[in-house]
């Protein structure tokens, strides 16, 4: 008989080592990684403006995370199961923190941000020198100088951001595959969907915090504390505004390191959930040792890697599900990565306001949908086939709602010589024509035609600069500067202008609300489908292949979705640019204004085409599932015991070839 003290000590260790303790720590890691991920996506526009780079390069920076993840995902997923999984996850969290710190480093290495402008912040002679004057010579045109370009881009400082994001991707690699496999190994099969739903909820709580943090940081000027913000001639809605993006990355670095701490105190293995008695724990450990011994007779640490790979590729359900995931992920990356930029250009709002609205309207319904989806799977013990049909129907409904986004649209900003004519009637021009920038009213002003420093006239039209509006003098300082006697502004008032683009019509604000309301329903319906769909992936693979299967699934998503999508879509966005910013050396910098009609067709049309093709593949999965006889609900312990015996038998017959149909049929006859 055991001594009482020894029994109490054993129970204390067992209590600490329960799967729920690991679930709590893993949820914290999910919150931290999703916090830094969504913050990175929200700051892409700020990074683009800070380093004066096109959207295609920004897409490459964003894709570097997937490259880092790709370098290690398969090997970590496979070899990680042989190692101490909690410690490997903890090390990954620390590496993510280091990556976030490296991303913020350029701010401390480069000088102050200098935005493109034609006027000085004070009302003096230098400011008047940039207004309309017929006596000025053409010396205002910038002289191309390669040294100026090299100096302005700070020796390609954006490479630090790219490398930091790549390191962040490396650190994120072990969290999902090793965490999911750890839960699948030691949790009850009927509790697994709920636990995964809790993890997915953590992936929503993190972005919610991240979006709020991003919204706050973008309201702060990038060089806060080192410049006088009263002298700024740009507002939050200006496309030259850069928020304090580096502050959030420092916070993300600290959060990721803190969440790593619990993993270093968690055990390598746990007793199967529900086996609370010491006798049951001992019995479970003996079975686990016997299982590892049986598998180790003919398999080393690498001998079963290729057989596992072959088995997964011969699994038609797994292969088709991976193809669907690649198509869907391409669509979602386009939608979420470039949503802040799209909504800014579409509805004329500031980055801070857009990011805040995205967080408030999108993340709570997704969080609720994940939890409800997991509870439904647990409550009704839904089988694999039913889960596939539920995921298909819900996703299709959400897809149809997506097309409503074509209705909530606005026109381009009315900029004279760019999107409209100089005449008061505002005749729309589909494309930018350089010769239209100068009108009769400003031809004698000798203005810079490429510099972007817009003003809004009393007539409701915007002009690329005060000089191009024909303004002869100014009054006031900073953002409150007013330009007067503007010859190109035809109005019954004083023919004056103020800094910044004119606001879009009030109808745009109403349409933005419609867009967000539809998004609430779309995100909720989509999140309901995520857990059933993900369980199809988990249940169509063997238990010993589960970690590698999840890792390989993520690998293909990275290769064909995460890496190329932001790059090629960023290049497509660049093609819709109407006016590029200009560096001091005369080279183009970041885009200042897009053709929103063309942008909208690409932003909504391309994801719709990708998702539409994925539903054709989904039909094949539903037809394949019909061919298999799925069992009714059985006792979980019997299922686990049968699976263990089958694994022991496989270790003895490893060299005997079997058909893929037999393997898939056996695995699909496992209770969800």
From TrEMBL:
Q: Which UniProt keywords apply?
A: Cell membrane, Disulfide bond, Ion transport, Membrane, Transmembrane, Transmembrane helix, Transport
Task: Give residue ranges for domain Major facilitator superfamily (MFS) profile.
Answer: 21-626
Query: Which sequence ranges are marked TM in the entry?
Result: 21-40, 60-80, 87-109, 204-224, 244-266, 317-339, 354-376, 388-408, 514-538, 550-573, 602-622
InterPro entries registered for this protein in UniProt: Kazal_dom, Kazal_dom_sf, MFS_dom, MFS_trans_sf, OATP
Instruction: List where in the cell it is found.
Output: Cell membrane
The protein's matches in Pfam families, at most eight in alphabetical order, are given as: Kazal_2, OATP
Q: How does it sit in the membrane?
A: Multi-pass membrane protein
Kazal-like domain location: 435-490
Q: Give the similarity note.
A: Belongs to the organo anion transporter (TC 2.A.60) family.
- The name under which this protein is listed is Solute carrier organic anion transporter family member
Organism, per UniProt? Microtus ochrogaster (Prairie vole)
């Amino acid at each position: 008989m055991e001594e009482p003290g020894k029994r109490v000590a054993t129970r204390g260790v067992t209590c600490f080592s329960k799967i729920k303790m690991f679930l709590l720590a893993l949820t914290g890691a999910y919150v931290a990684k999703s916090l830094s991920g969504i913050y990175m996506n929200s700051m892409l526009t700020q990074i683009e403006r800070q380093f004066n780079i096109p959207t295609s390069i920004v897409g490459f920076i964003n894709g570097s995370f997937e490259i880092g993840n790709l370098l290690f995902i398969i090997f970590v997923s496979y070899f990680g199961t042989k190692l101490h999984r909690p410690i490997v996850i903890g090390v990954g969290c620390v590496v993510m923190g280091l990556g976030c710190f490296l991303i913020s480093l350029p701010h401390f290495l480069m000088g102050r941000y200098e935005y493109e402008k034609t006027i000085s912040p004070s009302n003096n002679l230098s400011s008047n020198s940039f207004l309309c004057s017929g006596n000025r010579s053409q010396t205002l045109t910038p002289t191309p100088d390669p040294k100026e370009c090299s100096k302005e881009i700070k020796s390609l400082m954006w490479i630090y951001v790219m490398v930091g994001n790549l390191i962040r991707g490396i650190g994120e690699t072990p969290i999902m595959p090793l965490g999911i496999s750890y839960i699948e190994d030691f949790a009850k099969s009927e509790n697994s969907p709920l636990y995964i739903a809790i993890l997915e909820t953590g992936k929503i709580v993190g972005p919610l915090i991240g979006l709020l943090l991003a919204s706050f940081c973008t309201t702060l000027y990038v060089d806060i504390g080192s410049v006088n913000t009263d002298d700024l001639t740009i507002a939050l809605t200006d496309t030259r505004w850069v928020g304090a993006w580096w502050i959030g990355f420092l916070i993300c670095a600290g959060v990721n390191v803190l969440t790593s701490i619990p993993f270093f105190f968690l055990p390598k293995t746990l007793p199967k959930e529900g086996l609370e008695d010491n006798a049951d724990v001992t019995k479970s450990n003996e079975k686990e040792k016997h299982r590892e011994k049986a598998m180790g007779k003919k398999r080393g640490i690498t001998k079963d890697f290729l057989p596992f790979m072959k088995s997964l590729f011969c699994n038609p359900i797994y292969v088709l599900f991976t193809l669907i995931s690649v198509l869907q992920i391409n669509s979602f990356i386009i939608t979420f990565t470039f949503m802040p930029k799209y909504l800014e250009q579409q509805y004329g709002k500031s980055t801070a306001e857009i990011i805040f609205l995205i967080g408030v309207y999108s993340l709570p319904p997704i969080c609720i949908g994940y939890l409800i989806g997991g509870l439904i799977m647990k409550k009704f013990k839904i089988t694999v086939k039913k889960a596939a049909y539920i995921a298909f129907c819900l996703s299709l409904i959400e897809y149809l709602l997506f097309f409503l986004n074509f209705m909530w649209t606005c026109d381009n900003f009315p900029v004279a010589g760019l999107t409209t004519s100089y005449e008061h009637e505002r005749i729309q021009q589909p494309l930018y024509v350089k010769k239209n920038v100068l009108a009769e009213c400003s031809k004698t002003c000798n203005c810079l035609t490429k510099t972007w420093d817009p003003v809004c006239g009393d007539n409701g039209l915007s002009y690329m600069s005060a000089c191009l509006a024909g303004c002869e003098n100014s009054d006031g300082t900073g953002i409150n500067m007013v330009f007067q006697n503007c010859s190109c502004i035809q109005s019954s008032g004083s023919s004056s202008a103020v800094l910044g683009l004119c606001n879009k019509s009030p109808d745009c604000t109403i349409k933005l609300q419609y867009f967000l309301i539809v998004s609430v329903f779309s995100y909720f319906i989509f999140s309901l489908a995520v857990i059933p769909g993900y369980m199809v992936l988990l249940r169509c693979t063997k238990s010993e292949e589960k970690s590698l299967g999840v890792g390989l699934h993520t690998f293909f998503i990275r290769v064909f979705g995460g890496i190329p999508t932001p790059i090629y879509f960023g290049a497509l966005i660049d093609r819709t640019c109407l006016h590029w910013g200009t560096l001091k050396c005369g080279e183009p910098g970041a885009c200042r204004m897009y053709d929103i009609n063309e942008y909208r067709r690409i932003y909504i049309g391309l994801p719709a085409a990708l998702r539409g093709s994925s539903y054709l593949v989904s039909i094949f999965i539903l037809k394949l599932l019909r061919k298999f006889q799925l069992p009714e609900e059985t006792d979980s312990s019997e299922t686990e015991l049968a699976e263990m015996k089958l694994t022991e038998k496989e270790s003895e017959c490893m060299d005997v070839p079997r058909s893929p149909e037999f393997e898939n049929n056996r695995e699909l006859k496992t209770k969800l």
